[in-house]
Amino acid sequence: EVQLVESGGGLVQPGRSLRLSCAASGFTFDDYAMHWVRQAPGKGLEWVSGISWNSGSIGYADSVKGRFTISRDNAKNSLYLQMNSLRAEDTALYYCAKDRSGWTHIFDYWGQGTLVTVSS
Amino acid sequence: AIRMTQSPSSFSASTGDRVTITCRASQGISSYLAWYQQKPGKAPKLLIYAASTLQSGVPSRFSGSGSGTDFTLTISCLQSEDFATYYCQQYYSYPPAFGQGTKVEIK
């Protein structure tokens, strides 16, 4: 059974940093691209960032480019999102999502999310 | 960036109804479209990709159609567990983008 478990969320002041983690199990992690997708409270879904199986391809939404960094450790079956210079508009539930295959950006499994609140 | 627009934003329906949700892309995306279902407090679930291919395990009452700029998600016979919010998503070009969602409520 595919499991994705996010952690690292919390309350942080504007301008500070936070690092999210996603622990994956139930599939061959290094065969798949992985993504972060966020959802502001009461709002829709927004793709944040994606990373290919070997970290050779990486993409970011314009809203986070230059502030967020995605990475993965295939030996630890883990995905990360380093978030710097956080803003109030980054407040959201952050989901880790598995790519269906290759670099499709179809998200076939999702974690339950970790909540990031940016507020003074 | 490609913009995805869903209609309606919400509507009420009854169990057993046939319902259709529309998604329009701001430019052509071929068949690079997925549909997701999200229930309150839960993560989204992939229903359909490639505009009309049912994800494994998804009931056959769900179907998708369309190509280019106009797409539809149809639920042939609405069940109680189908009351949720539905999102379309294009993966034709960067950045991947979701529609604003369509909430299906109980009449």
List keywords for this structure.
heterodimer; A: 120 residues; mainly beta; 7-stranded mixed beta sheet; 11 strands; 0% helix; B: 107 residues
How is this structure best described in words?
The complex is a heterodimer of chains A (120) and B (107). Chain A has 120 residues and is mostly beta strands. Chain A contains no helices and 11 strands. Helices cover 0% and strands 51% of the residues of chain A. In chain A, the strands form 2 sheets. In chain A, strands 2, 4, 5, 6, 9, 10 and 11 form a 7-stranded mixed sheet that branches. A 4-stranded antiparallel sheet of chain A has the order 1-3-8-7, with no helix packed on it. Chain A starts with a strand and ends with a strand. Chain B has no helices and 11 strands. In chain B, strands 2, 4, 5, 6, 9, 10 and 11 form a 7-stranded mixed sheet that branches. A 4-stranded antiparallel sheet of chain B has the order 1-3-8-7, with no helix packed on it. The radius of gyration of chain B is 13 Å and the shape is globular. The model of chain B has no long low-confidence stretch (mean pLDDT 97). The interface between A and B is medium-sized, with 21 and 22 residues.
What is the terminal-to-terminal distance of chain A?
A: 40 Å
Largest Cβ-defined interface: A-B, 21 and 22 residues
- Biggest β-sheet strands, sense, barrel of chain B: 7 strands, mixed
SSE series of chain A:
EEEEEEEEEEE
Regarding quaternary structure, how should these chains be classified? heterodimer
**Contiguous runs where pLDDT drops below 50 for at least 5 residues of chain B:** none
* Helical/strand content category of chain A: mainly beta
Class by SSE composition of chain B: mainly beta
Rg result of chain A: 13 Å
The total beta strand count of chain A reads 11
Global mean pLDDT of chain A: 98
Mean pLDDT of chain B equals 97
The sequence of SSEs of chain B as H and E is EEEEEEEEEEE
Q: Helix count of chain A?
A: 0
Short description:
The complex is a heterodimer of chains A (120) and B (107). Chain A has strands spanning 3-7, 10-12, 18-25, 34-39, 45-51, 58-60, 68-73, 78-83, 92-99, 107-110, 114-118.
